[in-house]
Write a structure and sequence with these properties.
The protein is of the alpha/beta class. It has one domain: P-loop containing nucleotide triphosphate hydrolases (Rossmann fold, 3-Layer(aba) Sandwich), CATH 3.40.50. Helices cover about 35% and strands about 20% of the residues. The chain is built from five helices and seven strands, in the order E-E-H-E-E-H-E-H-E-H-E-H. It starts with a strand and ends with a helix.
Length: about 190
């Protein structure tokens, strides 16, 4: 699939001025944002991934198929960086949500094996306050099967106060959920 890296932005002034609808990817550090973008775009290493949380520190912009912009947001909740750096990431994301008229959808990634924490809830609330449509995706779905999945979906849905049917299961490893996520992206990009 045709896709290219455009730029990394550390401030609002560096955000690209483009006509393309934008899809943001948000979630805790190491939840699989970069891996998900690579899988969606059928690219192995367009977006840099790593086993160390906190790899994405800027907002990275990617143009997909010359018609939609993907933005890889810094992961939140990683304790090994300074409070000042975490605060600067938070301000950067707040300004992104506040100023991007092109933003159509924010994909909120949650690890299916982990309970949502305060940062996840704050991110969801920030999207609601900014009138940004949220798509909840449970990543690393290949790590669980059957009843384990059912139990985790129930726990996450209760913690976030969202209906179970609103979650998409996703695996960067197997590609599970790829078509459903693309369908949501396509729907949000319609005029």
């Amino acid at each position: 699939m045709e896709a290219e890296f455009l730029l990394s932005a550390a401030s609002c002034a560096q955000f690209p001025d483009t006509p393309y609808p934008e899809i943001a990817f948000a979630g805790r550090s190491n939840v699989g944002k970069s891996s998900m973008i690579n899988r969606l775009l059928e690219r192995k290493s367009l977006v840099k991934t790593g086993g160390t949380p906190g790899k994405t520190r800027l907002i990275n912009f990617f143009l997909a198929q010359k018609r939609v912009m993907f933005t890889d947001l810094p992961g939140y909740g990683y304790a090994a960086v300074s409070k000042a750096e975490r605060a600067s990431w938070g301000k950067l994301m707040e300004s992104y949500f506040r100023t991007r008229r092109q933003l159509r959808l924010c994909v909120l990634l949650l690890d299916i094996r982990r309970d949502p924490n305060g940062d996840d809830i704050k991110m969801l609330e920030a999207m609601k306050l900014s009138n940004i449509e949220a798509l909840a995706v449970l990543t690393k779905a290949d790590k669980l099967s059957g009843n384990g999945r059912v139990q985790r979906i129930k726990a996450v849905s209760e913690a976030l106060g969202m209906d179970k049917s609103r979650f998409i299961l996703f695996s960067s490893l197997t590609g599970e959920g790829r078509e459903k996520v693309w369908e949501a992206i396509e729907n949000s990009c319609r005029p």
